[in-house]
UniProtKB/TrEMBL annotation:
Gene Ontology MF annotations: protein kinase A regulatory subunit binding
PANTHER family: A-KINASE ANCHOR PROTEIN 14
Gene for this chain: LOC111136811
The protein's name: A-kinase anchor protein 14-like
GO cellular component, one term: cAMP-dependent protein kinase complex
């Protein structure tokens, strides 16, 4: 019997066990309350990835009142970015600056781009070796009424996930990871 056959048999047995367990649960209408947990469910809970994360179900993601389309200006947008960043939890040693990168007119909206550059300057190194950037985009529609809010999105440098204010929790670790990766890359490259 080849190793592929052994793996196929093990996979088949595993799938059969899962199906049998699911059928038993459906037949008995087993609800896993705290006092009814079975040994198998406790074992699965112990080894699942969910148990490695610290959950704070009571945490409220903070947000601010963003600009409407008629109120929008580059200066007001910068002020709103400052106001929004104040809702984030991070150490006092972090400093940031906001740069306006430009505007992109499209058929039905205009997109305004900003860069928030983060660093941790110290007395020994007032000019940091690396920075981490967060890119904000304000989308001001040209077809919606002026009372509608401007859509705001932001993304962290090197990340693909696009955040919307008030929907995701800021993690200081993201900034630290970006800077750490840049420093490691600079150390690996010899000039």
């Amino acid at each position: 019997m080849s190793t592929e056959d052994v793996y196929a048999d093990q996979a088949k047995k595993l799938v059969d066990e899962v199906i049998d367990t699911a059928i038993k649960r459906l037949e008995t209408n087993l609800s896993l309350t705290e006092r009814e947990k079975t040994f198998e469910s406790l074992k699965a809970e112990e080894f699942s990835r969910q148990s490695t994360f610290v959950r704070d179900d009571n945490f409220e993601v903070k947000n601010i009142k963003w600009l409407t389309i008629s109120e929008f200006s580059v200066e007001k947008a910068e002020d709103k970015i400052h106001e929004y960043i104040k809702t984030w939890e991070y150490e006092d040693s972090w400093l940031y600056c906001i740069d306006f990168l430009g505007e992109d007119p499209h058929e039905f909206d205009t997109r305004y781009r900003f860069r928030v550059r983060w660093s941790i300057p110290t007395r020994r190194k007032p000019i940091p070796r690396a920075t981490a950037c967060v890119y904000f985009s304000f989308v001001a529609s040209t077809i919606k009424p002026g009372t509608f809010p401007v859509d705001v999105f932001y993304v962290f440098e090197t990340h693909r996930l696009v955040h919307k204010p008030g929907e995701s929790r800021f993690r200081e670790k993201w900034l630290k990871d970006i800077i750490e990766n840049k420093v490691m890359m600079m150390q690996a490259i010899e000039f």
